[in-house]
Amino acid sequence: MKKLCILIPLLILVGLLSAIKFDPDLFHSKTIIGCFTKTAVPNIDGKIAFTHEDGVVKTGFSSFDRLARELRIVDMKQMHTYVKVPDWNDNGIYLQNHYRLYLESDENMDQAVELLGKDTNLVYAEFEGIVRSKFVPNDPMINQQYAHAAVRSYEAWDYIQGTHDVLVAITDSGVKWNHPDLRANIWINPAESPGMTIDWNSGTISGGNGVDAGEGGNKIDDLVGWDFYNNDNNPFQNYSANDHGTHVAGCAAAVGNNAIGVSGTAPNVSILSCKGASNTSPSTGISYAYDQVKYAAEVGAHIINASWGSTGTATYPNSIVNYATALGSLVVAAAGNDNTEHNNSYQDYPSDCTNAMSVAATAMGDTKASFSDYGVPIDICAPGQGILSTIVANDSYAAYDGTSMASPVAAGVAALVKSMHPAMTPAQLMQRLMLTADNIDAINPGYEGKLGAGRINAYAATMYDKIPNLKIEDYTLQEVSGDGDGVANPGEVSSLKIMLTNYLDPVSGLGWLTANDVVVTLRCNYPGVTIIDSTASFGTMYAGTTLLNNSQPFKFQTVASLPSEPIPFEFVARANQDGAYPYNKAIPLSIPLSLIQAGWPYNVGGATNTSPILADLNNDGQKEIIFSGQGGNISVLKKDGSTMYPGFPVATNSTVIGSMAMGNINGDANREFVACLQSNNILCVNDQGVQKWSVPAGGTLRNGPIIAHPNAATDNKVIAITQNGILNVLNGDGTPFANFPATLSGAFLAPPAIGDLNGDGNNEIVVVSLNGALNAVSLTTGQNLSGFPVTLEGGGSQNGVTIANLDGDTQPEILVASSNGGYLYALNHDGSVLFQKNIGTQMKTSPVVADINNDGSKEIIQITNNGTIYIMTSNGTNLAGTPYSINTAVECSPVVAYMDGGSQAGIIFGDAAGKLHSVRADGTESPNLPITLGGKIKVSAALADVDGDGDIEIVIPNETSMFVVDVKRPATNLPWPCYLGGWGRTGNSYQPTPVADPQVPGLITELSGAYPNPFNPSTTISFSLEKAGNTSLEIYNQKGQLVKTLVNANLCAGTHKLVWNGDDENGSAVSSGLYFYRMKSGKFSSTKKMVLMK
Predict the structure, then answer these.
(1) pLDDT band at 55, cuts 50/70/90?
(2) What is the pTM of this model?
(3) Any catalytic annotation for residue 358?
(4) How distant is the alpha carbon of residue 726 from its chain centre?
């Protein structure tokens, strides 16, 4: 019956194991642990003389070798080459018979475990779990203890949390030793404990024989320490004002992982309590301090903390410290809180004693705490500002400042090292702590050499000569297959190479242990990321060695809809698996995938006011990007972000105000760019970079110009208004147009708009002042139309006016968003109110009119300064479910594009947090967005297919740079493609202007081309269909033979893309050379060439 009781659990265990499936996030890639039977491997050392045949292992065990061929076991390695007791076994499981079996891939891992587990040569087979550092104490306040991250406690605790055999003495004001977060670590004197009782609730001690047990210290019944102030055996401190010792005790050794409070740097050592202060009145110092040190050393304290000190002579303090050192105690002392330099003229004891370890204090960020003493005699630093620890009152916690806190933080680290190295002398212990400290001189100018060896490092102090310390110093991310621009974008296959280093301290030269057989495995749980090649071997890495996985790059693929944001990866590094401390470290690293076009961003030298212009200036099928920077240069860049267009940049010698406008103003073959300058001149430059003219505006310019014609029979004019109301209309040569300049009343910050309000065939200039006067000035007379100016009750605006047809009649309406009044106005062409909507908050963006849900009706889009997005019908009613909020300030007027392949347009804008958004009518963001560009984004984007690949680009500046965001989707429509709706900046969405605005043409059936071309290994072929129908796309070689059919099916109308990977119908790679791709749809047929280069 007993045998049966053992067997049933074993069967259940086997069943559970067989149910476990391979998970690359839990188990090592391509690795299985197998234990060979004693029958298969009878020798005492477990050695198997295996060879390799056809790339797989061969052992001579026929059934195993058959599985090795079937499963592709390419290598195997004995896990324990040395076992002290080789005859020991656990029911036939011998340690020396364990081997790691390495498979060629992860594809058959589940099958391999199952089949190998059944093989008669093996006792069992199982996956090898990834061992991650897991110790993070559950103390709820530990996240408020920044000191642990600073001194790297968490990494040290993975290996050692202390031992109660190590005794840390707190020589101080006394310790409330029944504090719930201290009591489990309070030292109980084994020599005195027989016959004695502790009441943990009341903090009292009873019993005892009245005789010293002779263990040292010469104190009677000293069960937990000694009260030197009252000369009794209870060092209990319950007076709140004297809680210094209780706080110090918690810094060093508050109990860790007990689900309450905090943790000391040594969370599992013993605390010896010594008391030198009253229980009934505030203490100004520590009484009998050196007596406490002597006693602590005599009862066997390994670490003695002295968070106290005084100036004076050195003889007696040195005698006590030297005596303690001779007895095996390391004295750790606070340097002092007077911001004073220790030197020949000033000393503080016991800190400056020859054999004491003097501790100065640092603040967050490893800078010297403002109060801390310093000087050449300082030995080491530790965090001492804002240190959270135990206090007397209510068994609670508080954060204190002082080298009194830094000293026990360091003392706790010393206790960890003593736990790991119990034979170390005090001198060796101090030397090790100083050797492994992190030098912080570089971030403490003026204190070089005066902060000791640096800030203490618990991880290095405990483990540097027992394990390696592998770090990822840098990485290289490249596109493997995708659009060919070299940038790793969402939706592509990317390669990742890491620069792995076994750490060598650049200042001290301290080297960590050599790492043997280093293998790094890439993991990622992020949705939409698939790991293709997960493992790289780095061999042997000595301290200071840096290697890259050039020959074994990691590879992964992402879905196209992945956000353009940092992706959290984990690199699991393994080394020294046969050593005393097998090294398994998970290294987290966030790696951003980017939609930023190759060559961008371009540093413009500071904040720019100019929304970019996108235009194909040389008719090469690619857009140039025109903008101005902080210094006033007008730049024209090619798509690569580095090639400047001939004739540019143009130096304006003044900052450009507002956005530039583009149009043809003199009837020649060149386009002109017009800018308003901070010098209060209006400048005209043609597309060859030639300055045509610059004329004074007659006042301060606070906004950009527009380009439009007065009527169909007149050439384009340049229109700009000054802050003091001088309305300029200029001819193509810079001379004033008839009846201009005109003078308007009020102050003007907003750019003007233009439209034919009264239907007479002549355009009017519509502009609003800061005091709310809406003007409609005739370009024919230079005067306001009858009924204008109109006073807006909610105040004026610094935002551009928008002209649109909202009510379906033949006349336009005027939209104005008041800057501070919180009103959105819609006025009829005669100035009467169509509606006014109380938005109720500040607005710094212009209204936009566009059909954003493809219902045939245009919506009004208005974004408030607090980031609320209003989407309204033509009568001002909120669209169902709106408004939405991004909860971030917005000053960037939006643009609009259909770029998501559906019936919803994206409302594209930036925010004050540096994020680029594309919000749709249902409140969702477009795929891949938002994207963090950084800084603040206040200037509107421009939209176009910049590089001619069929996809849309978003071009937008932040405070320092111009960005080109390469959206990997075509735009089917651009209802509002740039600031104020067009390059002329007319603000008119209803009436045509002669300026060539960027409109998306209606769909036509065409074969656009292959990109890249020439290509290797893949190219993307783009085509569009005017209407749905059967469509084929086929690849032919030079002999006219069909190589592959990419599609032959009914496709919907719109833009399509297909990728050819350079293979034939059988999936075999084709050779280099010239190929033809032919598209057919209905009566349409087109054939083009492409070149595959290998």
Answers:
(1) very high
(2) 0.68
(3) no
(4) 49
